[in-house]
Amino acid sequence: MRSWSKAMVGGFAVALAVAGCAGSGSGNDTGGQTSAPSGPRTLTVWLMNGSAPTVLTDGLHKEFQDSHKDVTVKYEIQQWNGIQDKLTTALASNDAPDVIEIGNTQAPKFASENVLEDLTANVGDFNGANWLSALKESGSWDGKQYAIPFYAANREVLYRKDLFEQAGITAPPTSREEWLAAIGKLKTKFGSDPDFQALYLPGQNWYTLLSFIWDEGGDIAKKDGTKFTATLDSPEAKAALDFYKKLVEESGTKAPKDADEQTPEQAGIYGGGKVAMFIGLPWEVGTAAKSDPSIKDKTSAFPIPSKTAGKTAPVFQGGSNLAIPANSKDKDLARDYLKLIASDKYQGEFAKVGMIPGTSKDVSALEADPINAAMAKASANGRAVPATPGWATIEAGQNPIKDLLTAFLTGAKPVDQATKDANETLNKAFSG
Known about the structure:
This protein has helices at about 55-65, 85-90, 105-110, 135-140, 160-165, 175-190, 205-215, 235-250, 265-270, 285-290, 295-300, 330-340, 345-350, 365, 370-380, 390-395, 400-410, 415-430; strands at about 40-50, 70-80, 100-105, 140, 145, 150-155, 155-160, 220-225, 225-230, 275-280, 300, 315-325, 355, 380-385. It is α+β, with helices and mostly antiparallel strands. Helix 1 (about 55-65) packs antiparallel against helix 13, helix 7 packs across helix 8 and helix 17 runs antiparallel to helix 18. The two termini are about 25 Å apart.
């Protein structure tokens, strides 16, 4: 999902109720135990609306069909709205597609229900040495790989070059300390304007909080086998909350403490011309430019700074994975398709349109643009939410990390109580 709004930059996480288990299926595999049938065959591929560029799919499908005589690719574009129900039904049926795209937080749920093919033995065939680690983790379950990375994106700090220059900021911040100093300079220069905001930071931008938690050396939860236990009460997580609060207070942000970056849409606020920085995704600049077309040329980006000077903070990587349904009737063709789409040749098309390739480390096409270059630099330190089926219920309902932020920032709860309550809610979700 290109927008990566509430649905996707948490990966398109929704509550899933997979009906039954599809078993291992009766499709052909590549183990050499069965021969591929002769005669015309059809490979059914489901990719999501707004995902793969047309130039990628046109070239891919032509090459695939040219190298697989008597095979036709039946390419069907699916809509994100309602996809969880459609996939649930399809994966439990005897008429499943052969290749599917799934949001990165859907994969553990489907894998745990035995409706995806085990791809562990084929990782090397799918350019496995170059996979994004965050998406690789999200596609694994119980020590096995059930989905491969497709593409991703991550957040960065988008900023007004002209306002930085006027405030005497000669280079983008490369540490938290420099970031706070830049905020101070911006407020000194423009603070007399009551509508000015050095940084627009909503109270519930939990993706940003994750960067700070990881940068402190903490995590959302600790893993033991396939089980997770929430750790938002750790000293590292509390230090991250303190820094988030410091940014809110020192920036003078007017963003609501009880809403996320979509309420109101932060790109629209930035487009109003009174905001110097916000933490977002590269294409949000295009949204901002709808209000003021000139803002695109005035905007650049830098990675979210680490507390360690010269380093970038870890970032949440939202994106999509590709999988083969366990009930696919043409698994041999599906594996060949994944091998081709995972190659540098086709993954490079994602970089050309401003996305992080899932199975290629070649991001040179991104580096040509400063905004995309900042995302690419940060992507090397990408992280994922816990790869557990229970995560699907967290973002689909009232996200406890959002509640934690609001309670802490407003003073409704002291930090110990706020983190304790968030842990309890997360643990209930993890336990199913």
